[in-house]
Every structure is written in C-alpha cells, then in structure tokens.
Amino acid sequence: EKSSFSLAYEQSFGFFDDISDYNWELMQNRAATRQNHRFGNDPLKFRTYPAHWYMNNFEPDFTCPQERRIGGPGDGPKWVCDPHR
Asked: Are 58 and 31 in contact (CB under 8 A)?
C-alpha cells in the first residue's frame, strides 16, 4: 500500500511533499499535546527575565526532517527548516 503525502503538502502550503500522512499526524499530535507552561499555576513567573520566561514556558514542538543552523556560532545564526528546498 502506497503512503499518502497529501496532508502535509496541503497543510504546509506545498512546503512539505515528503512527509507521510501518518508521520504528519504524529507531528500534529505532538504539537497539540505539549504543556505550554512549566508553572501552570503561575505562567507569568520570570516575566521580568525574558530569557528565563521563554526557557520555562516554551519548548520546540515542531522540527523539520532536515533542519540546519545557518550562520555559524553565537546569537546571530538561525535554525532553518529544510534549507535544501
């Protein structure tokens, strides 16, 4: 049986054409079920320290199959989703 790749293709506006529907649904489930805040009863904890706030409240819930860090070390470089596309 051939896998369908239509969900990822349609929902990513054509960016992903090589992720099966099964794997795309797994990725969606991971994003939908993640816990947003480490301190659920005090989500604004560390609000005066932005780096600490983000570190305690948001974790990556989506990764690309071939993500790459472009630009070298330090704060300037960025992670790019599948730069070969």
From this structure: no
- 29 token code pair: 């489930």
Q: The whole model's pTM is what?
A: 0.64
For the chain, the distance separating the N- and C-terminal CA atoms, rounded to the nearest angstrom, is 27
Amino acid occupying residue 40: G
Give the Å distances, CA to CA, from 8 to 5, 34, 68, 74.
6, 20, 20, 32
The pLDDT tens digits along the chain (85 residues) read: 567 999 999 999 998 899 999 999 999 998 888 887 888 888 888 889 888 888 888 777 777 888 888 888 887 888 888 888 7
Contact 45, 30 (CB under 8 A): no
CB atoms within 10 A of CB 34: 12
Beta strands in 1-85 (DSSP E): 68-70, 78-80
Distance CA 31, CA 3 (A): 22
